[in-house]
Amino acid sequence: MATVDFYEKPGCIGNAKQKALLQTAGHIVRTHNLLTEAWTPEQLRPFFGTLPVSQWFNPTAPPIKAGAVHPEQVSVDQALALMVKQPILIRRPLLRVKDCYAVGFDLSAVDAWIGLAPSSDLTQDVETCPSNL
After folding, report:
1. Which of 111, 64, 89 has the alpha carbon at shortest distance from 9?
2. Which of 41, 68, 78, 90 could form a Cys-Cys staple with 63, CB 3.0–4.6 A?
């Protein structure tokens, strides 16, 4: 079993489901508030790996929904600077296990990475905010 640093938006229903899936699988989950963490670009960058910059963003963040930020039009450096200033822009959750990092909660990817309980329904949607369905 793994010890998972889990960066969430407190009160997020999706993040609560994601943490429950990790705990059911026997993982130790250390929860951190994504919005109050003192981020630097160097700390954030590893979470995004080789994903396109547009996939680093939370599409339901108010600045994106209002059209103030266009994730497909920003560079790596611009994205990181925006996220340091406005952590609500960061796609959730951020996950770290030792020196391995991930963003989002793709069930199949998390299962392949650290494992989920055999009874886990890997077809459910635990990334989309229920209020946006």
Report:
1. 89
2. 68
